[in-house]
Amino acid sequence: MRLMELFNAESNTPEDDELGVLILLIKDYDERHYTLPEIDVLDVIKEKMQERGLKNKDLEPIIGSKAYVSSILSGRREITLKIAQKLKDFFQLPAELFLRTT
Question: Is 12 helix (H, G, I), strand (E, B) or coil?
Fold first, then answer.
């Protein structure tokens, strides 16, 4: 029950401070002991396309010409900031996914 009290603590109280310390300790432990796999943005896009039954041509209004869509999905061209924004909105994915460099 004590833990639930901490999660519901009022701001600027000793309980709130304790919760902040616990969160930092958990984050530190996770970072030291667990590594998250690198996510390939192209794999995510292709997976989302498959989930929605989309073909490359369905991305043309978002990305551009057939050749441009093909070159991005094959990895021959980088995803620009402008295209990343459009893909983020279209697939409703976090922007950070598209801003990673591999």
Answer: coil
